[in-house]
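Hi U.,

Before I forget, here's the chain from the pilot set. I'm dumping it here mostly so it's searchable later in email.
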Amino acid sequence: MKEIPHTFAKLGWSFNQIARKGAVAIFARWKDPAKPHMEVVRIRQHNGFPLPDGTRTEPGESYPPDNQWGRDGFTFSGDGMAERAELKMRELLES
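Structure:
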């Protein structure tokens, strides 16, 4: 199964994995490196799916979709964001 990379870029954002335990991870996210955010996510798994060109992706991991934000994904910014992200990670691991 293809894992989410530790660093990647998507839609103009850069992502860097800070921590991971099981299927819960913290990523730093930024467009401007001086203004990062932190995201805590429950990493999802898929069995692969067909692409428009007729090929198929291999089974792998993915970020939660936008409609699952607030349940499987959380964004933190500003003062204390690292501490709040770590607290949310612990909360998700205990649930």
